[in-house]
Design a protein that fits this description.
The complex is a heterodimer of chains A (149) and B (101). By secondary structure, chain A is mainly α. Chain A has one domain. Helices cover 67% and strands 9% of the residues of chain A. Chain A starts with a strand and ends with a helix. Chain B is an alpha+beta fold. Chain B has a three-stranded antiparallel beta sheet with strand order 2-1-3. In chain B, helix 2 crosses helix 3. The chains are: A mainly alpha (149), B alpha+beta (101). The interface between A and B is medium-sized, with 35 and 28 residues.
């Protein structure tokens, strides 16, 4: 099972081949959804004019950064190694990428409120996006714990 | 609590309405984080600590305020800095806005 370890200040993610392939599948299937603004994409301003300026001048850098994060994760997973050493900035990039992917999965599932994991139907639990939420949530928790330790 | 005597308070000079407006425009922007059902609590705490330098207790208190009340002001900054903070929060996938108090 996937593990995130912190030894002597270094973070290591241990993923077997099957887990890496599953994660690559998640990245590849949900990344296209992130290219277009999600309905839940956070706004910065109430004011339409200020928001338009933000979308024009700031949003492109955020989108570019997200692509860099996703590429970093994709390249690491495609490298063929079971143990993936991460620097702190890389671990933060993985966390950011996973959060965007989880939000996209939540949007596919139509999740709008807290407690979704307690009220999910069997049908919802069978959907791949539900598995994405659980699997990436687990890895996020592990990465956070490693970074906070 | 420290017991050293503080200097006598001096009355701040009155500000013109234009100056007051400018100060609020430039210095009084709230950075607000909003609750969303997907993002993990532990992740929000980590992000608040990394971006704003809060200790674990403060970041946890703010995260719980977001979770329980739907939103929390996590910083008050000059507008440009507040916009950078919001952009950083967005890059982490958090729901964040900035606005005047």
């Amino acid at each position: 099972m996937a593990q995130v370890l912190r030894r002597r200040g270094r973070i290591q993610v241990k993923l077997d081949k099957r887990e890496r392939e599953a994660l690559l599948g998640i990245v590849d299937s949900l990344s296209p959804r992130l290219a277009a603004p999600l309905a839940s994409a956070p706004r910065a301003y109430d004011d339409a004019k200020l928001q338009a300026e933000y979308d024009r001048w700031v949003r492109p850098d955020i989108d570019k950064g997200r692509e860099v994060d996703l590429t970093m994760v994709r390249d690491a997973l495609a490298g063929g190694e079971d143990t993936l050493p991460l620097t702190e900035p890389q671990a933060l990039a993985w966390l950011r990428a996973f959060n965007h992917l989880r939000i996209a999965a939540g949007e596919v599932l139509g999740i709008e409120g807290d407690g979704w994991d307690e009220t999910a139907t069997d049908e919802t639990k069978q959907k791949p996006e539900y598995g994405v939420l659980i699997a990436l949530g687990y890895l996020q928790e592990e990465l956070v714990a490693a970074l906070e330790s | 609590m420290a017991t050293t005597s503080a200097p006598a308070p001096t009355k701040a000079p009155a500000k013109s309405p234009e100056r007051q407006e400018r100060d609020q425009r430039e210095f009084g922007w709230n950075v607000m984080v909003w609750n969303d059902p997907i993002t993990l609590m532990s992740y929000v705490v980590l992000v608040l600590r990394r971006l704003f330098g809060y200790d674990h207790a403060t970041a946890t208190r703010l995260m719980l305020q977001v979770h329980n009340e739907g939103r929390a002001v996590v910083a008050t900054q000059p507008r440009e800095q507040a916009e950078v903070s919001v952009a950083q929060l967005h890059s982490f996938g958090l729901q964040a806005t900035l606005g005047r108090p």
